[in-house]
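Archive maintenance. Older records in this collection stored only the sequence; we are now back-filling the structure field for every entry so that each record is complete. The fields below show one back-filled record exactly as it appears after the update. Entries are processed alphabetically, and Glycerol operon regulatory protein is next in the queue.

ARCHIVE ENTRY
Title: Glycerol operon regulatory protein
Organism field: Streptomyces avermitilis
Length field: 252
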Amino acid sequence: MALKHEPTAPNHSAQDALRVLETVARHSTGVTDTELARRTGLGTERLTALLRMLRREGYVEQVADGEYVPGASLSRLGSTHGHDQALREKLQHTLDRLRDSVGAAIYISRYIDGEVHVTQCAEGPTTPAVHEWVDFRSSAHASAVGKSLLGQLDLNGRRDHLARHKMARLTSRTITSERVLLSRLDAQPPTVPVLDLQEYAVGTVCAAVPITAGSSVGCLALSLPIEHAHRLRQAAETLNKGAAPVLLSLAI
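Back-filled structure field:
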């Protein structure tokens, strides 16, 4: 199964959204969309889409005269008091919405101190999470999450990880050659979701997209049972396009 190499840019969307938020924050009494366009240099169509997303996420509010002011989510995440809890709650809300729109279990994963960590997950009765039958920390070579995270490291970082974790064969589709894996990671376009087609577990397909914020390496991922494999391409594209709010929350 192959994805069409159609670039999407959650990183660029988050960066543009941050420019809008910075401008709104400097005008706490309100700023018009015309002034926002002038100060950010964004086109009308682009700005309208970003403002729609920012309003949906609660980062800005539009008051009676049509001007934009900082929203409740921006205030909570911008505060040092209770920031970590506010961030976790905000991310969970975003993951839950993505789960419902994509129709799949959704995960946030981070590469912390040289290991793969799934930090949050949104699942449900009709969107079950993948069964972690092998520790995700030792199966990065086989999972979409792991390959997305490894793909964001430099060559030395990838080799260091693989030196610490044996590339065990988990299914008949698992890549167990370091040379082959490194070659595929190197060839993976950064704007195209990484796939796991029953490489980690028989009966499950997955996709992951990078959500790197600053020097922090992370990814947003989904999993589907094999009977829904025909939806993987569209689900992965939807996930990629929906990654900007997650990146934005991590960047604030």
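Update note: Strands lie at 60-62, 68-70, 105-112, 115-122, 194-197, 204-210, 218-225. Confidence is low (pLDDT under 50) at residues 1-8.
Entry marked complete.
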